[in-house]
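Memo to structure team: turn this sequence into structure tokens by end of day. - J.P.
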Amino acid sequence: MKHRFYAFLVHFSLSCTVAGLAVMLVFFCWYPAPLHEAIGVTYIFLMLLAIDITIGPLLTFLVYKPGKPSLKFDLSTIALCQLMAFSYGMMAVFEGRPAFIVFSVDRFDVVRALDIDAGSAKKAETSVKPLAKVSWFKPRWVGAVASPDIERRNEIAFSSLKGGPDWPQLPELYVPLEQLKNPMLTKAKPLAQLKALSGHDYEILLKEQGETVKWLPLHSRNKDMTVLINGTTASVIRVIAVDPW
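Reply from structure team:
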């Protein structure tokens, strides 16, 4: 029993170390706060980790016995199965990560990597748009504008009405966020209005950032939030977990 418990602790410690690295990668890189809440990945990811770091060590505890002929095979099989389950879960989280935060018309949209239209992404590549390339790490802030081609514009409009991709999911339409400074400032609203809508007190933020702070809504899959911008330069300050509606 003593040897089994020791083997369990070793396996559990290794699993926790890997899980800790995964948490840092997911919540500090792929889903920087509060986007993990906006996408709704927190519960699923933590449940996946909890299952993965407990089942493996428990199986080790059950099969471990010094001198057992098949011990190496048993432990290797457990480790392989655990690694495969962990890799599958991490791949799903990676593919669902927010790739872009796109401003179009009057709001921002969080676009996951798996939501991006493949055909449009290829068009963006051929037109040499480096900002439309999905990052392996943090999401990129970009803007989206109407296609200069009228036929393509109509095609996108009809497609979106049928549930197809709209501007935020089409990298061919992406432009640097700075290019949409005027539309952003025109559509942005004062913090006082956000305070009235949500009931939150933003006096401290107003003192820190000045009276030029404005906000725009952020639409996401799980929870809508708010983007604070500088009311003069339109530069993004940060995302706050406040429902803008």
